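Sequence only, no structure available. Ideas?
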Amino acid sequence: MSKHLIEFTDISKSYDGSLVLDELNLYIRENEFLTLLGPSGCGKTTTLRLLGGFETPDKGRIHFDGADITDLPANERKLNTVFQKYSLFPHMSIAENIAFGLKIRKKSKSYIEDKIKYALKLVNLDGFERRSVDSLSGGQQQRIAIARAIVKEPKVLLLDEPLGALDLKLRQNMQYELMRLKEELGITFVYVTHDQEEALMMSDTIVVMNQGYIQQIGTPEMIYNEPENAFVADFIGHSNILDGTMLEDRLVEILGVRLPCVDEGFGQNRPVDVVIRPEDVELVSPAEGCMEGTVTSLIFKGVHYELDVMANGYEWLVHTTKHIPEGTKVGILVTPFNIQIMRKPESSDEKAVEVDV
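Reply:
I predicted one. Tokens follow.
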């Protein structure tokens, strides 16, 4: 028996001759909150639709709870999907919307009524049974769409950018609500988004995708602090990404300066990508830094200042709580632990990883 609830094996999918997924392998555990993250066109929604049964792969197999479901119709899979467009029936009441799938399954009236009350309580909309869809806010409609999905007790809930249509404050509130629901329901969530902060906040596991390939799989902390390549580093948060030369173990050269680091195993005098996060750049006096620069811009971001610092021909992005005016001469200092070394890919769409999560 597999330890994974869901397994994608060698999945490929094309549309009109254009390859969207290229031999994708992905494994999802039971009770996991897994997020498919990447830019538009990376293949994340196609992956979700293949799992939901709305598409069929050109190659490969999908297994669910030990059974091959590759060719199984969507309505026979033990999962439900919540889309960005909630697709609620405007001519039906809230109760009728939630009960729709249960009536198709010919459940008893008392069973349906109990399930409606349970689902509405779970999404914090008790007493909304008789309300019309048009009377609800966007956030409330989204909750009803979730209630309609969970009332059928799926083992997996698929969510395709369900918060994309909401304003910032409401979206943030719903992120907490989804995390609470996940814990209360005790089921697996597979979530699609292009929002990096959303993925970092909500997920147990993040799958970063680009051009049909998985670039990296890991916990939010691992994805942010230890990106596998320049694409992941650039897509997740802000980064300073520099061309470097790994001179030897624990010693790298960037911008003409040799810096100690903690990475090993890259060989000697090998070209590498070097990632340094803006919050890991310490600004000191010019004499104390490893290189000298000048502050060229200063923006107040609320919890920190965002600075551009020109040093050794490179414009560094720096996050600091210090107010340092434009034109100030500063030194740049980075501790070895905060220097992330990555091999350079042979091409921009190189398949970066094949990792069992």
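The longest helix spans residues 168-185.
Hope that gets you unstuck.
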